[in-house]
Amino acid sequence: MLMRYTHPELQFTHALPYGAVIHDHGVQFVVFSRSATALRLLLYRTVDDTEPVDVLHLDPQTDRWGDIWSVFVPGVQAGQLYHFQADGPYDPENGQRFDGQARLIDPYAKALAGRFQPGSDGVIRPPKCVVVEDYFDWEGDRHLRRELSETVIYEMHVRGFTKSPSSGVKHPGTYLGLIEKIPYLQSLGVTAVELMPIHEFPIGHVSGHETERPNYWGYDPLAFFSPHRGYAASDEPGAQVREFKQLVKALHQAGIEVILDVVFNHTCEGNERGPVLSFKGLENRVYYMLDTDRSRYRNYSGCGNTVNGNHPIVREMIFNCLRHWVHNYHVDGFRFDLASILSRNQNGELVPNAPVVNAIAEDPLLADTKIIAEAWDAAGAYQVGSFGVDERWAEWNGRYRDEVRSFWRGDVDTLGAFATRLAGSSDLYERAGRAPHCSINFITSHDGFTLNDLVSYREKQNAENGEDNCDGENHNLSDGYGAEGPTRKKAIESLRARQIRNMMTTLLLSQGVPMLLSGDECRRTQRGNNNAYCQDNVISWFDWNLVDRHADLWRFCQKLIHFRRRQPTVRRQNFLTGRVAQPGGLPDVSWYAPDGGPVDWAGPSALICLLTRPAVDEQSTVNACDLLFLLNSTSDPQDFVLPAIARSFRWKMFVDTAAKSPGDIFPEADGPSLDFQQRHSLSYRSSRVYVAQH
């Protein structure tokens, strides 16, 4: 048995910080539990141990400080494996679910090791916690601090990006494998990767057996402070800590920021029928929102339970977790999954100025980071345009996604909404004193169709998920344009390729911040599956053969990204007004019908937009230019006549989505000249962009 030191110089009484903290002569283990009557520390020798090699009983008289249990164990060092175990009331009617036999994951564990194990006593053994040494040679690395307005986000899955044999990497499906593909990201031109959850989540089923439907996406938290062990190349306990830090450092060296998708809305412990793995067994009614019948859980996440984010203890944990990722891992920002749950009080009611939302925005250690909300939840809350109190919070703009999709599909009465989204969504953000960069514009994300599938399927094809095609979103605003899925009909395929270019052009030339879904630049397909959360296979993996197969589209996207990054006109700091800023000048934006006259906003979906370069006092005008958009989302060809205001410019073509590569984009905006004395016919569902020559 391990013995505690009794020499006065070796007595440790640290009640904080939480977790397993390494000291010179051992480790301090600290955990919160208000209602536990006894608490034990279980120590293991290997990840395969089903029983501990030592059990340390904490003394409530000497090892408890208020509601914090803390014990120093001498001789323990980095790599030690452990669980907690807590006795206490099992009283579901009053929200208590203590289980003295359950092995509990430390809520502040910095790494986990191993898998779920079925015990001989029927109790599930969750992965073991690992004592972690935080030291890492960052070689001077710091946050890149790129302005959000200058950011191009690439949403991706760590495993799926390199798991396919076509990736050709040495360590497929891992943090190290992603490092090998950083030159690809650099060449594409994105400035930030938004990583789908890399915190710990169950690899297999929590019963201890592998499941036919694995948790591929990772939106099922098991330990908020721990990098996912399944993405480590090494099976050494805690190796994921080192390897994820290597990834962040390598991305920073390439000029690419790291944004983490964090899930503070629920955990994998599920509802009242779910297992006791961590929070339930330490203080269930603090960590979770409970229903009026306290034996049941409020379920605003759609996943069985809801994290009680505005309880002071949980709020403290969230802050500490965010600070942990920023300070120890140098991450540059966060995207908060189902963030509207953070706006709910402990009774589940949506409240203005929710404490945790305001505190995240004001936290001094997070001041250099990007914070992005998915401003809705699974229980009907929809806060796009109203999440947070100032421009510190950006949002996934779901209305941008829907209204751009509708416009290019040719839906009626979409002209005004589309123009508003192209111009930065001032209707959502300006009235609150926020800036265009508060709108994270996207057309596709992990949750839904890929861009290829958006223009190839009218209906979802989710049968392989094993839920009779009942899962996934039904309102997709998609179309197959004459066929469902792959087709050999050249006319349909040509239209699909054009629609992809139309939406990419819109996304990358809109005011706000663009976010691309990984693989959209080369027509990655999920075979029509719009909810591939359980598809850890070729349905979800990045097929690197597509980069060559669709090199023309890849080039198109790359050139658009590079144009955006050097073009202040499409990433303004302030909203467009439509007014003349100075005598003799031009409006910052003006809209016209195809005949060059006033727009009939209830008319056909065809439009001219003149976007002039920013005024000198607004932002840097180096390389700034004037842009002319000709847009036709109708099903017929459309003639365009330049408005009088545009005839004083010398226009050169930049983009023509109906043309074949390489004529679909001219990287230096030096394509064919636009003759303002002629009518210009645009093919159905196509767009052109011209740049003024000065």
Description of the structure:
A hairpin with a 4-residue loop joins strand 8 and strand 9. The strands form 8 sheets. This protein has an 8-stranded parallel β-barrel. The protein has a 5-stranded antiparallel β-sheet with strand order 4-3-7-13-10, with no helix packed on it. Helix 8 (398-409) packs antiparallel against helix 12 and helix 12 (490-509) runs parallel beside helix 14 (551-565). The chain has 694 residues and is of the alpha/beta class. Helices cover 19% and strands 19% of the residues. Mean pLDDT is 94; it is low at 1-10. The protein is elongated and about 90 Å long.
- The chain-level structural class is alpha/beta
Helicity, in percent?
10-25%
Amino- and carboxy-terminal Cα gap: 81 Å
CA radius of gyration is 27 Å
* Quantity of strands, as a count: 30
Mean pLDDT: 94
Assess the beta-strand content as a share of residues: 15-25%
How would you describe the shape? elongated
Poorly predicted runs are: 1-10
Largest sheet at a glance? Answer: 8 strands, parallel, barrel
Which strand order spans the largest sheet, edge to edge or round the barrel? Answer: 14-15-18-19-20-21-22-23
Number of helices: 14
Blueprint of the fold:
Elements: E1 19-23, E2 26-32, E3 38-44, E4 54-57, E5 64-65, E6 68-74, E7 81-87, E8 90-91, E9 96-97, E10 112-113, E11 117-118, E12 124-125, E13 128-130, E14 153-156, H1 158-162, H2 175-180, H3 182-188, E15 192-195, E16 199-200, E17 223-227, H4 239-253, E18 257-262, H5 280-287, H6 312-329, E19 333-336, H7 355-362, E20 370-373, E21 393-396, H8 398-409, H9 415-422, H10 426-429, E22 439-441, H11 451-454, H12 490-509, E23 513-517, H13 545-549, H14 551-565, E24 589-592, E25 606-611, E26 627-632, E27 638-640, E28 650-656, E29 680-682, E30 686-693
Parallel strand pairs: 14-15, 14-23, 15-18, 18-19, 19-20, 20-21, 21-22, 22-23
Antiparallel strand pairs: 1-2, 2-6, 3-4, 3-7, 5-6, 7-13, 8-9, 10-13, 11-12, 16-17, 24-25, 25-26, 26-30, 27-29, 28-30
